[in-house]
Each structure stands twice: as structure tokens, then as C-alpha cells.
Write a sequence for this structure.
């Protein structure tokens, strides 16, 4: 168990190293003239040149890379080139927004997808067909279209929910919930639909297992077989899908945070990309990879815990 | 028939999604009140940019000033019409040849950290501004020395005259921070000034909400109309429009495309020009595109552009077509130049054949999200109609300005801020101007520039008008129109546009009567 | 009398035409194919048939409504013809999507083939890289890539293709691993075929279908991603894709919302069609019949006089099955009959053997009694009654599952064929024994535990506590079968249905288990239905025997009589097979394992 975790963590660190190094090298060779962007349109070329030296842009690749790596290893990702905020601070400041949305959506997706997926698998018939139709619709309509429709109807038309902005949970629970409701709906529609599909096929697979028939032959109630045995058997597949959904959502929030003007990690990623704010972009990539590695580890542990075979080995 | 119903459902869903979006304009309710009637209350402003640093040495004009104005006083204050009035400086006086400016300061001002604002503090701030390599540091390039001669007197010595200096001191350059806080080194995120408000860090979420609360000891309570001012950076125009229509913010800058919706929602609209848009011919010497060296070719392009139609379609008619790069309300403005180059394809073709150039092509940059697709297509088509092919190059927004400034393109469309004549000269006309990457000039322009810089007020005005006329004749640029800034407040809020500034100053807001 | 039913298997051709035909029969799949066909044709011929130059701007006539001046769908904000742009946009949109798919295939397919075929170090490295790629959020990577490599739809689609390659890799690798050790690949290897031609001929063939599905899905996601990148302002406005058009529609959403409708519709329909096509293809593959070319059986009375119809009035039988018919409805209204007109009875304390080859309908008969037929199966006729309770009445009414589950476990028990797959791998053996005891017999947990341990001892397990605490994968097959037998008899059933209880076991273990069964049968005085293909087992254990072939009863009667004087040729063949010590010849075609596909995972945008 411990050695499993250790091995996975080492693998995670390697992933982190590879991804961040690749990103760094890619960004190094991009031609973004960041000093000019920082100073704005009225600065002189001399100022721009000075700024480049200030930022160390005149340094050779490896000197910059090792500077960054050294800092990163000690937890210091530098300071944003644009707003002079420490990168870690601005990422940590934005994590609550993104995690609020993504985690709540994951919980909703897990619950609803299980409900719909199991219903579709067990009942088949119209429930199943409805799920198919909704899934196709959800995957065919781009997420940002859904989001824009939601804003237009619920924020501007009915004025039920705020159109933009984020209220921290610690400030006001009601406000927090209101501020993340629309983004969550936009994110959840696709997630629920596709997760439910996966749950459905996992449940169908388990339902067709021999041992389910045998359990039924023992006189156990269908409800007990479904909830105790079938769901348990389908859970690893469901968890894996949810972890993939989670990773997908970390990207999906980029679009939503833009539409809802939410100060989250995705928006930070987009902003640092468009500006060429390399320290921030590197920081975002590192944090996201860390989150992903941790989530994958947790999912693996959960799957192992659910599956006695994996548990022992 | 199952399949048909499924496909129909998908189609209907998509259509519904889009129709719903379309209907929104009519369904929108007037923005709700947030209790800001009368004095006091909270003013929430949507800002189009996020503050980069609260350090006044890094301050920038335009959209950014609204972040500094609550926390910092400036040396002078610009009234909405551009008139300079006292703020921290009660009086200011130039010497005879305009190379030495003496400022007299108030003696009753303290910073919110309790320290006193004096001449030494002003010196520290001005010196930091011109050496700190902030975005606007170059505006103080002519300053050779700042001296605090006594507690309330500051003398600024110039290398050469700068007709815009006083304006600068009423803008980004004039914000004064507490020297103690400067020493502390945390000014970028923890501003300490003497302004009417202080930043409430506990109610501030970087990049999302900046809350400013009334400074109880402020020396001029007339500038403290609201108890609280909240600035919310919203970088997406649609999100901005949604925010003001749904009542989340009281004031916002919108765009021509979002204007009808806000207007339909019963919000108060303010229109004022701050920019001009059009083509900049950088390569006037013909280094990259030899044809551009010929004034007739540049004039032909001016005639070939259908300015009115571009304004109507791209700018939604919100603005004024023009042929001059200098703005209304500046000394250089000349009403007769407004329509110097009417849309005339035949004339354009005639000029081109006079110039003896055949068909040729120009490579110009375009930026996704910044260039309206209709604009790119319109320019391309107008020029194609007279035999000039535009090869568009897709450039990242972050590379656009530097590619212009570094002379990578012979010409480009751009939207430029219209300041005073001296500002404009340094922006686009002087040999070392930012947007003169090929450093082109001629003797007449040089003479006129000197006159603007060093002449008396009257001489400056004449020279400005002459230089305007000359570069329009010489077709250094092909201006299309001055787009209106489209600013909205809700019905509980009023404001007043600020001359030559993208958004109103903080001081201009008041609850509606 | 006996027909040779064996036919030369032609799985390849059969599967191919079958899948395609089934795809066409699926209305959704057909619609998706038609839409995609139109879109692809548009992509090829769009530039030729476009009525206007798609880039010809005419600002004066910008935002004209549909139908104005010959503009079928109106003009956009630059006065360009929307319809022409839509036609031309199809080309760049599809090419960009195809680029992503091709890149994903070019990376995923060869690496997947090598990793699956050779395994080893290459496999572990490739799999690790795959895991890394899969754990990266696509949009974030595309953001970084656009910052680094520039804004071009071709660059972003290439990067996206790389990000999608793990899907291709995994599918290929899994499929290859599955077939690698299949007999025909071994045979090919023995026949001296080179590795390359094995991969080319056999393995590529197997992975082809899942890859087509995955390609369809990747294309759909790629188009959606293009639109999202455009929306974020990271696109390339100079390549007229649908995403560019949609973005322009959004810029003008308040003024001319209809501009967003056309590209929106085109994108949604195309993406939706790709998804539907993927699903329909998978359905078509999964629905591939498990028994190919089974001869349809007519519901005619049996021609052999040896079969006596059971007198339903004889209700003192423990179990009586009368003229039972079971079938599976097929697409197109036909029904595949698997059990026809089967009648027999079992008395208390009697062991009845049902003998036949696989596919003869004997297991289906057993499941009918238990009420555990798959959902798709239908009882076509006949009746089943257990101890006077009509499980299936002559009218075709089945006893409700609720009433049935009261009988199951308590009065009718079941021993399955394959021990390992019939224990839930996620629960301990103890739990699986104790739970029915508490639910069915109402024992307390402690009593049930004690009883379970006792049962484990009875079935001959030497260390019952260890087995009790073990998970199914921790015990041997023989032991698992003993556990299943213990479970079956745990509630003292009156009727035990044993479906090939020894087939999956070693020969020595087989004998032990048979002994055990005989012993238990005597101890609990149960009626037993023993389903087997093996006459040896019948001879060993049964009192009477029913011989089945192709869903019908061929012959039935006293074991001794039938062993000594089989009347039917078929029975003799089966007997002969037993005497020669061979497994009976199979009359069935080789069935390919139905490929299992990962359902599409929608990557968040």
C-alpha cells in the first residue's frame, strides 16, 4: 500500500517535471513580446528594452530554466510579470473559485449520473432513450452556448442569479451558491450526460455478470443486489470516468470563467496565455498537474479499496 | 420515426438556445437599485482592465486611473472638460521659458498611514515615476531634476519644454504615495496614499472585487460622495453588459455591439470620443512596400476606404467619420479636414495610375478578438477594389503592438488614443515617436514640432493646426472615424465623461437626483 | 436423422456486412451517416458550388436577412455570403478535425500495436506516456500551445490530436492483447507468417472497428474544441471554419442573432452526428449475434415417440415442465427459438439429467425454471410448475419476480457452471454465504456465520474459517465450486438446479464434487436437475435423463435404458463421444469474443 503510494507519487513528480519543462521550453521559444505588453502602447522602445533586462529575458534558456526550476523546487514560482502578485498567491487566491465550481459539479455529476445511469441500465425503455437523446444533445451543443443561454435567461431575463462574479464561501453562503449556480449548471449538463452514459454501460456490464444471476438465485432482493453488488462492481468504472471528467472540467472552466467573469484558475490561465505572463502560466500548469496527479492517485486508491484484488497486490 | 424525433430534438434545442439569446434584449429588466440614492451608499463600477499594480510609479492612464484615484490624490486634478484645478498642489507656475515648474503644496494633508505629505514626499514619488520604468515613465523624460525647496514647494526642472507636463501631473504621473509605504515595499498590493478612500483588503479579492471605503480624515469631503466604491474588473464585453443590465454594477463601459441591449434596458448612455481608428502607414519611405513612398498612393488608399460604411457597420454608427488624426477639442482640430478624403473609388484609381503603380500587395496584421471580422473584410475589400491586395497575418494579441513598434509591418489598422497635440506628436508624428517605427519625417514637420514644443500658447496652436493639415495632405495616415466611447450608468447613478480619458474619473460619479 | 449443422465459419465477412447492415437499419445511425455524408460532400465540393466568393466583402449589404439579393442565408457583418462561407467552412472545419484524428491515429495506432503485440518495456513506457497525456486538461495545454506555437487552427488541431492519441493507443493495445494469443494468430505464427503480416492481416482487422468509432468521436470533439478556441479569441480568423463563423455570430449576437444559428446548427449537427455514429457503430458491433446462423426451429411437436408429454394433472411432481418454448426476439420481428416444446418432470429425491451439447437449450431451460432468463428472452409457450405453484402458466404468465425470489434460494437453488465468475469478487466468501442465510432464513448474523462455517465443512473444505474470510480470487476453482454448492444448499432447498457443475474443474476435482453432490442430494433429499453435456456424469449421478438437441427433446427416459439402448442416433453419437473420451463435437460455429469498447468519454471543453 505504502509502496504503491510512493511509486505513484514518484511517477507524479516525474510527470510534473516533464510537463513543466516541456511547457517552459515551448514558451521560451514563443515570440511573445511580453515587455511591450506590460508597459502598454505608450512606452518607448528603450523602456521596453529595460523591462526585458529587468525580467531577465536577456538571459539564455538554461539559465532561465534553472532559475525557474530552483525557485519552483523551493515553492517559489516568482512574481507575475503583469500584476506583480506572487504567482503562488494569485493561484491560491483563485483556487477556491475554480474548485468550488468543479468540485460541486463533480458531486452533482456523481449523484445524478448514478441515478440516471442506473435507471437507464435497469429500466431501459424510455428512460434509456431519454438519456441517449440528452447525451447526444449535451455533447453536440458547445458548452459556451449553454452558458450564454443560461446567463441570458436566468441572469438577464429573470434576474434570478448573478450574471458575473464570485462570492467567497466564507463571506456569504447564499451568495456563494448563487454565484456558482449558473456555471455549475453549464458544466454539469455535459458531465452528467456523459458520466451517466458510462455508468449505464458499466451497470449493464455488471448486471450481465454470472455472479449477479447467482446472487438472484439465492433469493436476495433485487434492490439489495443492485445497490450492494452491482453498484459496487460498477463503481471503479464510474470513478475513473469521474476523474477524467474532473480533468476535462479543469479545462472547461476556462470558457465558463470567461463568460461569467469569474476570478478562477481557468481565467488566470487564459489571461496569462493572452498576455504571455510566463511565470503565472507555468504556475498554473504546475498546479493543475499537481491537482490532476493527486486526484488520479486518490481515484486509484479508491478503486483499490473497492476492488479487493487490486487491494492485495 | 424515432430517429426523426431525436434529430428534431437536437435541432430544436440548438435553435432554442440561440433564439433565447436573441430575445434577451426585450426581456431585460431595468437595473435594480442598490440603495445608492442620495449621498452615501455604494458605487460599483465595472472596469475593463484589472489593476496591474497599486504602486503609483507603475500607474497608467486611461482605464487604469480609476484604480488609483480612490486611494491617491494627484498633484493637480483634471475637471471633466480638461481644466486643471488644484488638488495636492494649490498653485503652479512656469518660469519664463517654460523649463522650470514650481508647485506649491497643501500643508494639511496626511497619508492614511499617519505620515505627513510634504514636498519631499512629492519628490520621492516623481523621481520614482520617471526612473521606475512604469508604463508611462517616458512622459517625464524631459524632467532633469525634482527639488523640494521647502516643505510645501517643489521645483521641477526640464531639459526641454513639455507642453503636456501639467496634464501629466493631473493624470497618472501625479499620484503621490506615502514614502513610508514605499519603503515598506508592498505598495503594489497595499496602496497607501492620501486619497478620499482606502482599499479595504478584507473585502477585496484580487482580479474580482476591489473595495474602497471612505477615508474618515480626508481633507476634501466634497470628493467623498459615496461611502464605498467597488471596482470589479470584467474583461469580457458581454459579461460586462450582462453585469450592468442585471444590476450587478452601476456603471460600465460597453461597446457598439452591446449598446442596443443596455439602451433597451433603460440605462443612461454617455458617448464621447477618445480614440481614432484607421490605417497607419509606417513605411512612408517605401522600405518594405515601395509604393507607399508615393504620396499619391497613400492618398488613393484614403479615398478607397469607405469610412461611412465602416462606421455604420463596424462601429454601429456610433462615432464620427474623419480624415484627421487629431481629436475634436484639441488645438490641432480642423473642421474642414473631417472630410478631406471622401469615399471615391474612381479618384483612388486615378491617383494610383497617376502614380504609375500597378497592382501591389501589402501585408498587414490582424488579431483575433481585437479586429472585428467585418473590419478586416471591409478594408481588404475596399483596397481590393482599387487593385491593392491585403495579405492578412494572424498575430497574437500579445504580439501585436510590439510587431508594429518594431517595424514588422508597412501599415496596419489601429485604434489610437487622441491626446493633446503634443501627446499626439510624440505618439505618431515625431521621428522618435512610438508609432513611427521607420522614423520617417521631413523638414516641415520638424519645424512645426519644435514650434509646438517651445512656442507660446498661440504659436503652439497655429503650429498644431498646420502640422495636422500637412500630414493629412501628405496622407501619413488613413483615419476612418472617431468611435464613441459608449459608457452606461444605471438610473440611480450619474457621471460625466472625462476629456481624453477612456472612462469617467471617480470624482465625477454621483447618485441621481 | 442428424443433420450436420456445422458450417465453415466466415466471421470476417459476416461481421462486416452484418455491422454495416445493422448500422443502416438503426435509424439514428442512418441519419448520422446521411448528415455526415452531406457534410463531407460539402467539404469536397463546397468551394465549387458556393454561389458567391466566400471572402468577398460588401459592407453596404452587411447583415442582410436570408433571401436578400440571392443570399440564401443572408450576409454576415462584413457583407459576405453566409451560405457560401458555410459551404467553404465545411472544408476547413472537416480538414482540421481530420487532422486531429489522423495525428491521433498516427501516434496511437502504431504505438498501440507495438505495445500490445510485444508488451515489455516498450509497453510500460508507452502506457506511462499515455497516462501522462490523459491526465492533462486539453484546453489548458492548448492555451499553452497557442502561447508558444502561435495561433493557427492547424497547430492547435495537431496538438489536440496528440492529446487524443491515448484513446487510440489504449483501444489498439487492448484489442491487440486480446487477440494476440488467439488461436488463429498462433496458427499464423506457426505457419511462418512474418510479424508484419500478422499485424497487418489479423490484428489490424480486429482493431479496425473500435478505431473507427474512436475516430468518429475524436472528430466530433475536435470540431467542438475549434469552436471553443475561437470563442476564447485564440483562433485563427483567417481560416473560415465554422468556429470562426460562430464566433462572429457571437460578436453580433445582439444585433443579428441569426448569424450564430447557421454555424451553430452546422457544428451541433455534425458533432452530434459523429457522436451518434460512434454510438450506433458500437451498438451494431455489440449486437452482433452470439450464435451465428442458428437454424430456425419450427415449433412443431417432436417426432420422437419417446417423449411423453407430462401430464399436468400429476401435480405431485416436485417440478414439471410442459411444452416449454423460449425465444429471443430479433430485429425485424423474427424470433430466434432456443427452446421448443420441452417437457419433463422431477420428483422429490430424484436426479434428472439434461444432456446436450452447448447451444442445445439445456441451460436456457434451467434458467426458465429459475426465472433467471435474460431480459431479452421471451417464454413462447408451455408451463412450469413447482410443487403446485405455477412458475409459468400455460397462458404465458410468469410468476412475479417478487414471488419468485421468495422461492429462489429457499426452495429452489442453483449451482452455476463457472465457479470463479459466479462469486462477487468484491465481497468475502463469508459475506456471500451469510447474507442469504439472514435474508432468506431470517437467521441472526451469528447463527448464519456458524451455519456458513458448518456448510463449508460439509462441502469438504478443511479450513472453513480461512475460506470464510477469503475473497473469491484467493481460493481455487474447485474450492469456489464447493463454496457455491454450499451456498446453494445452505437454505435446505427442495430442488437443486446444477448447470454443468463440474465442467470447469480438473478431472480429479470433478469426481470429488460429484461425490459431494450425490452425498448432499441424499442428505437433504432434494430433487436435482443436472444439466451437463457429459454422459459420464449422467451415468454417475442421474436416475432419469432428457437428451436435448437444438432446443428440442430428442429422447428421454430411465438412465439405464437410455445408456443401454439409445433409440436416437444423436444420443448414440453423444454416448460414443463419451466412450472415446473426447468432448463431443461442436456443432456450433466459432464465435468471436464480442469486442468490448470503452464508451466515449466526452472531454470537457
Amino acid at each position: 500500500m505504502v509502496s504503491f503510494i510512493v511509486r505513484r507519487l514518484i511517477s507524479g513528480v516525474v510527470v510534473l517535471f516533464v510537463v513543466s519543462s516541456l511547457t517552459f521550453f515551448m514558451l521560451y521559444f514563443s515570440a511573445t513580446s511580453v515587455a511591450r505588453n506590460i508597459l502598454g502602447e505608450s512606452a518607448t522602445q528603450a523602456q521596453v528594452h529595460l523591462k526585458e533586462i529587468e525580467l531577465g529575458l536577456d538571459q539564455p534558456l538554461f539559465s532561465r530554466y534553472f532559475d525557474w526550476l530552483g525557485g519552483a523546487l523551493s515553492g517559489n514560482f516568482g512574481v507575475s510579470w503583469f500584476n506583480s502578485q506572487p504567482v503562488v498567491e494569485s493561484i491560491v487566491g483563485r483556487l477556491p473559485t475554480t474548485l468550488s465550481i468543479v468540485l460541486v459539479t463533480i458531486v452533482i455529476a456523481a449523484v445524478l449520473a448514478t441515478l440516471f445511469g442506473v435507471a437507464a441500465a435497469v429500466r431501459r425503455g424510455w428512460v434509456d432513450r431519454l438519456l441517449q437523446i440528452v447525451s447526444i444533445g449535451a455533447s453536440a451543443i458547445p458548452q459556451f452556448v449553454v452558458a450564454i443561454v443560461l446567463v441570458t435567461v436566468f441572469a438577464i431575463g429573470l434576474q434570478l442569479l448573478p450574471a458575473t462574479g464570485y462570492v467567497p464561501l466564507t463571506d456569504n453562503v447564499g451568495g456563494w451558491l448563487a454565484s456558482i449556480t449558473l456555471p455549475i449548471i453549464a458544466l454539469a449538463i455535459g458531465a452528467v450526460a456523459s458520466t451517466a452514459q458510462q455508468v449505464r454501460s458499466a451497470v449493464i456490464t455488471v448486471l450481465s455478470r454470472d455472479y449477479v444471476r447467482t446472487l438472484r438465485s439465492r433469493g436476495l432482493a433485487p434492490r439489495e443486489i443492485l445497490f450492494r453488488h452491482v453498484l459496487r462492481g460498477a463503481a471503479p468504472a464510474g470513478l475513473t470516468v469521474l476523474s477524467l471528467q474532473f480533468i476535462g472540467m479543469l479545462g472547461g472552466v476556462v470558457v465558463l470563467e470567461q463568460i461569467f467573469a469569474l476570478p478562477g484558475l481557468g481565467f488566470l490561465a487564459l489571461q496569462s496565455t493572452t498576455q504571455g505572463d510566463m511565470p503565472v502560466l507555468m504556475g498554473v500548469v504546475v498546479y493543475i498537474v499537481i491537482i490532476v496527479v493527486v486526484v488520479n492517485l486518490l481515484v486509484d486508491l479508491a478503486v483499490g479499496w473497492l476492488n479487493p484484488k487490486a487491494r492485495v497486490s | 420515426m424515432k430517429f426523426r424525433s431525436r434529430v428534431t430534438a437536437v435541432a430544436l434545442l440548438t435553435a432554442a438556445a440561440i433564439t433565447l439569446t436573441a430575445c434577451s434584449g426585450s426581456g431585460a429588466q431595468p437595473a435594480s437599485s442598490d440603495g445608492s440614492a442620495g449621498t452615501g451608499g455604494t458605487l460599483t463600477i465595472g472596469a475593463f482592465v484589472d489593476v496591474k499594480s497599486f504602486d503609483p510609479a507603475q500607474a497608467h492612464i486611461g482605464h487604469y486611473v480609476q484604480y488609483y484615484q480612490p486611494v491617491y490624490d494627484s498633484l493637480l486634478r483634471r475637471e471633466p472638460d480638461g481644466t486643471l484645478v488644484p488638488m495636492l498642489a494649490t498653485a503652479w507656475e512656469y518660469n519664463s521659458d517654460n523649463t522650470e515648474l514650481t508647485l506649491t503644496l497643501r500643508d494639511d494633508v496626511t497619508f492614511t498611514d499617519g505620515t505627513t505629505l510634504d514636498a519631499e514626499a512629492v519628490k520621492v514619488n516623481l523621481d520614482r515615476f520617471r526612473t521606475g520604468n512604469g508604463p508611462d515613465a517616458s512622459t517625464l523624460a524631459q524632467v532633469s531634476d525634482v527639488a523640494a525647496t521647502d516643505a510645501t514647494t517643489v521645483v521641477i526642472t526640464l531639459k526641454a519644454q513639455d507642453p503636456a507636463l501639467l496634464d501629466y501631473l493631473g493624470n497618472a504621473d501625479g499620484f503621490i504615495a506615502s514614502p513610508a509605504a514605499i519603503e515598506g515595499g508592498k505598495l503594489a498590493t497595499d496602496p497607501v496614499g492620501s486619497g478620499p478612500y482606502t482599499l479595504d483588503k478584507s473585502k477585496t479579492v484580487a482580479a474580482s472585487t476591489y473595495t474602497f471605503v471612505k477615508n474618515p480624515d480626508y481633507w476634501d469631503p466634497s470628493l467623498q460622495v459615496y461611502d464605498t466604491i467597488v471596482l470589479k474588473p470584467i474583461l469580457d464585453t458581454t459579461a460586462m453588459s450582462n453585469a450592468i443590465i442585471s444590476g450587478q454594477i452601476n456603471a460600465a463601459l460597453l461597446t457598439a455591439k452591446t449598446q442596443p441591449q443596455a439602451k433597451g434596458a433603460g440605462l443612461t448612455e454617455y458617448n464621447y470620443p477618445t480614440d481614432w481608428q484607421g490605417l497607419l502607414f509606417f513605411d512612408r519611405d517605401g522600405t518594405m512596400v515601395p509604393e507607399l513612398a508615393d504620396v499619391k498612393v497613400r492618398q488613393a488608399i484614403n479615398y478607397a476606404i469607405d469610412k461611412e460604411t465602416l462606421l455604420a457597420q463596424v462601429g454601429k454608427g456610433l462615432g464620427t467619420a474623419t480624415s484627421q488624426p487629431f481629436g475634436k477639442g484639441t488645438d490641432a482640430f480642423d473642421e474642414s479636414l473631417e472630410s478631406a478624403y471622401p469615399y471615391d473609388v474612381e479618384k483612388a484609381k486615378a491617383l494610383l495610375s497617376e502614380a504609375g503603380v500597378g497592382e501591389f500587395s501589402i501585408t498587414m496584421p490582424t488579431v483575433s478578438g481585437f479586429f472585428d471580422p467585418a473590419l478586416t473584410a471591409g478594408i481588404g475589400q475596399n483596397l481590393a477594389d482599387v487593385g491593392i491586395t491585403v495579405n492578412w497575418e494572424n498575430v497574437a494579441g500579445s504580439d501585436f503592438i510590439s510587431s508594429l513598434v518594431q517595424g514588422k509591418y508597412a501599415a496596419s489598422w489601429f485604434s489610437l488614443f487622441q491626446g493633446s497635440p503634443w501627446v499626439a506628436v510624440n505618439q505618431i508624428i515625431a521621428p522618435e515617436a512610438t508609432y513611427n517605427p521607420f522614423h520617417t519625417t521631413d523638414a516641415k514637420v520638424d519645424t512645426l514640432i519644435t514650434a509646438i514644443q517651445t512656442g507660446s500658447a498661440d504659436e503652439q496652436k497655429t503650429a498644431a493646426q498646420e502640422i495636422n493639415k500637412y500630414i493629412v495632405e501628405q496622407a501619413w495616415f488613413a483615419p476612418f472615424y472617431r468611435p464613441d466611447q459608449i459608457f452606461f450608468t444605471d438610473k440611480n447613478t450619474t457621471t460625466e465623461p472625462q476629456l481624453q480619458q477612456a472612462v469617467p474619473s471617480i470624482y465625477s460619479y454621483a447618485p441621481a437626483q | 436423422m442428424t443433420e450436420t449443422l456445422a458450417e465453415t465459419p466466415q466471421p470476417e465477412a459476416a461481421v462486416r456486412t452484418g455491422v454495416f447492415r445493422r448500422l443502416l437499419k438503426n435509424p439514428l445511425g442512418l441519419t448520422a451517416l446521411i448528415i455526415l455524408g452531406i457534410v463531407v460532400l460539402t467539404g469536397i465540393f463546397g468551394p465549387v458550388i458556393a454561389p458567391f466568393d466566400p471572402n468577398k466583402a460588401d459592407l453596404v449589404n452587411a447583415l442582410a436577412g436570408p433571401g436578400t439579393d440571392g443570399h440564401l442565408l443572408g450576409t454576415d457583418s462584413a457583407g459576405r455570403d453566409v451560405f457560401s462561407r458555410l459551404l467553404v467552412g465545411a472544408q476547413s472545419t472537416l480538414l482540421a478535425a481530420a487532422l486531429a484524428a489522423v495525428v491521433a491515429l498516427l501516434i496511437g495506432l502504431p504505438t498501440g500495436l507495438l505495445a500490445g503485440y510485444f508488451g515489455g518495456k516498450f509497453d510500460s513506457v508507452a502506457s506511462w506516456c499515455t497516462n501522462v497525456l490523459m491526465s492533462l486538461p486539453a484546453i489548458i495545454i492548448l492555451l499553452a500551445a497557442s502561447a508558444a506555437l502561435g495561433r493557427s487552427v492547424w497547430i492547435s488541431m495537431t496538438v489536440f490530436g496528440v492529446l487524443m492519441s491515448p484513446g487510440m493507443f489504449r483501444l489498439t493495445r487492448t484489442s491487440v492483447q486480446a487477440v494476440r494469443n488467439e488461436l488463429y494468430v498462433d496458427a499464423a505464427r506457426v505457419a511462418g507468417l512474418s510479424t508484419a503480416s500478422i499485424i497487418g492481416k489479423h490484428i489490424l482487422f480486429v482493431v479496425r472497428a473500435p478505431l473507427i468509432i474512436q475516430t468518429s468521436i475524436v472528430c466530433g470533439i475536435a470540431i467542438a474544441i475549434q469552436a471553443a478556441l475561437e470563442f476564447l479569441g485564440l483562433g485563427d480568423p483567417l481560416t473560415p471554419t465554422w468556429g470562426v463563423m460562430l464566433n462572429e455570430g457571437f460578436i453580433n449576437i445582439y444585433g443579428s442573432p441569426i448569424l450564430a444559428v447557421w454555424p451553430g446548427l452546422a457544428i451541433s449537427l455534425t458533432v452530434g452526428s459523429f457522436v451518434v455514429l460512434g454510438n450506433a457503430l458500437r451498438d451494431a458491433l455489440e449486437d452482433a449475434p452470439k450464435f451465428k446462423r442458428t437454424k430456425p426451429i419450427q415449433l412443431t411437436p417432436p417426432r420422437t415417440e419417446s417423449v411423453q408429454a407430462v401430464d399436468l394433472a400429476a401435480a405431485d411432481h416436485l417440478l414439471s415442465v410442459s411444452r416449454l418454448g423460449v425465444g429471443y426476439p430479433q430485429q425485424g420481428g423474427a424470433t430466434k427459438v432456443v427452446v421448443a416444446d420441452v417437457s419433463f418432470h422431477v420428483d422429490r429425491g430424484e436426479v434428472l439429467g439434461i444432456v446436450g451439447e452447448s447451444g442445445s437449450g439445456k441451460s436456457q431451460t434451467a434458467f426458465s425454471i429459475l426465472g433467471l432468463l435474460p431480459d431479452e428472452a421471451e417464454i413462447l409457450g408451455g408451463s412450469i410448475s413447482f410443487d403446485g405453484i405455477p412458475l409459468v402458466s400455460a397462458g404465458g404468465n410468469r410468476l412475479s419476480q417478487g414471488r419468485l425470489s421468495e422461492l429462489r434460494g429457499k426452495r429452489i437453488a442453483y449451482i452455476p457452471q463457472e465457479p470463479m465468475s459466479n462469486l462477487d469478487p468484491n465481497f468475502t466468501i463469508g459475506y456471500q454465504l451469510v447474507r442469504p442465510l439472514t435474508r432468506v432464513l431470517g437467521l441472526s448474523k451469528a447463527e448464519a456465520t456458524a451455519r456458513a462455517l458448518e456448510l463449508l465443512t460439509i462441502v469438504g473444505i478443511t479450513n472453513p474459517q480461512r475460506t470464510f474470510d477469503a475473497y473469491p480470487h484467493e481460493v481455487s476453482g474447485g474450492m469456489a465450486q464447493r463454496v457455491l454448492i454450499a451456498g446453494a444448499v445452505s437454505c435446505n432447498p427442495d430442488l437443486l438446479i446444477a448447470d454443468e457443475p463440474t465442467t470447469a474443474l480438473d478431472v480429479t476435482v470433478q469426481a470429488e464434487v460429484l461425490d459431494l453432490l450425490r452425498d448432499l442430494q441424499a442428505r437433504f433429499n432434494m430433487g436435482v436437475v443436472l444439466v451437463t453435456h457429459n454422459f459420464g456424469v449422467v451415468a454417475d449421478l442421474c436416475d432419469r435423463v432428457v437428451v436435448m438437441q437444438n432446443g428440442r427433446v430428442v429422447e428421454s427416459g430411465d438412465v439405464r435404458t437410455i445408456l443401454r439402448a439409445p433409440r436416437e442416433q444423436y444420443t448414440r453419437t453423444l454416448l460414443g463421444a463419451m466412450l472415446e473420451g473426447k468432448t463431443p463435437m461442436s456443432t456450433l460455429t466459432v464465435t468471436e469474443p464480442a469486442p468490448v469498447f470503452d464508451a466515449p468519454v466526452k472531454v470537457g471543453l
User: Anything to note?
Assistant: Chain A touches chain B through 64 residues (CB under 8 Å).
